[in-house]
What does this fold into?
Amino acid sequence: MSGTSNVGTSAVYEAGDQRNAPESEQEKPTKFEEGKENAHDQNDPKDERSIANRLAAAKPQNDSTSGKDLSAEDKAAQEDPTAPAKMHGNEPSKGAKIDKSIADEEAELIAKKDAAKAQSKKDKK
It folds into this structure.
């Protein structure tokens, strides 16, 4: 019944612009290069790798040297929470100011405790 319609021209019913390219024109990836990078979870518990292989794969993630490639801004933020905003010429946020004041108070307490500990060791001798 649809072939006998008199509405519009035959070009309306053709989907030439929506057809896929023939397989001969499509680029096919070579074998072993089909998988995309980071397509699979390296620490997948359902994977059939041995525990030693999983540990070897997880070692770079847990390595203490992984933090050495931090930017100057990130390193400054570890020392002073208000530093990144100051580096960009902005006023630090309220949370950063609070974090800095807490860190300063904790540093004072630790310094007092260290001084008291050193004094008590001196008194014992």
